[in-house]
């Protein structure tokens, strides 16, 4: 057991996060997302929403300060889906966990393409449509002497 690691971050996911570098992206996806067909590396979780898992990952994950929007949510495909509960929950959580950080709305097929190029896709059991987020890794600043 490790201290200060959220309990929902299991060892396989922790390894994925520790293996990522600056500019790498990770997708946290809902149960409807075609994770197996797009992922280079696929991690599955169960019993947790995409919102809860994203919040836990953001406790460990430095966001990229060199891109316009290091956070991205899948845009709705139809106007009637604009108020999707998952999007509201994710947007509220991102505003709390990463205040002031820009969040992009990414068209569905563009989101799939970015997922194909992402370092990894984490498939949750979240059944809510549009519970999909992309996080872009930043850097952890070192001291002036490199320590």
Written account of the structure:
Helix 3 (50-58) runs parallel beside helix 4. The protein has a single domain (19-136), classed as RbsD-like fold (3-Layer(aba) Sandwich), CATH 3.40.1650. The protein has helices at 11-19, 35-38, 50-58, 85-97, 108-117, and strands spanning 25-29, 42-44, 71-74, 103-106, 120-123, 133-136. It has a 6-stranded mixed β-sheet with strand order 2-5-1-6-3-4. The chain is α/β, with parallel strands linked by helices and 147 residues long. It is globular, with a radius of gyration of 15 Å. The chain is built from 5 helices and 6 strands. Strand 3 (71-74), helix 4 and strand 4 (103-106) form a beta-alpha-beta unit.
Q: Indicate the CATH topology.
A: RbsD-like fold
| CA radius of gyration | 15 Å
Looking at CATH, the homologous superfamily is RbsD-like domain
Q: What is the annotated CATH architecture?
A: 3-Layer(aba) Sandwich
Structural class: alpha/beta
Shape annotation: globular
N-C termini distance: 26 Å
Number of domain units: 1
How many helical elements? 5
| Strand order of the biggest β-sheet | 2-5-1-6-3-4
| Amount of helix | 25-40%
CATH class: Alpha Beta
The total count of strands amounts to 6
Low-confidence stretches: none
Characterize the main sheet: 6 strands, mixed
Q: What percent of residues are in strands?
A: 15-25%
What is the mean pLDDT? 94
The succession of helices and strands, N to C, reads HEHEHEHEHEE
């Amino acid at each position: 057991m490790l201290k200060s690691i959220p309990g929902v971050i299991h060892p396989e996911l922790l390894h994925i996060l520790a293996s990522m570098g600056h500019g790498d992206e990770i997708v946290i996806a809902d149960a409807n997302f075609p994770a197996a067909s797009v992922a280079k590396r696929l991690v599955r979780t169960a019993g947790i929403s995409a919102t809860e898992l994203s919040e836990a990952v953001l406790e460990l994950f430095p966001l990229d300060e060199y891109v316009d929007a290091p956070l991205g949510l899948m845009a709705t495909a139809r106007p009637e889906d604009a108020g999707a509960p998952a999007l509201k929950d994710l947007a509220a959580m991102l505003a709390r966990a990463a205040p002031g950080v820009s969040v992009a709305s990414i068209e569905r097929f563009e989101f799939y393409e970015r997922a194909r190029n992402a370092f990894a896709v984490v498939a949750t059991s979240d059944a809510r449509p549009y519970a999909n987020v992309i996080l872009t890794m930043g850097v952890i600043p070192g001291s002036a002497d490199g320590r």
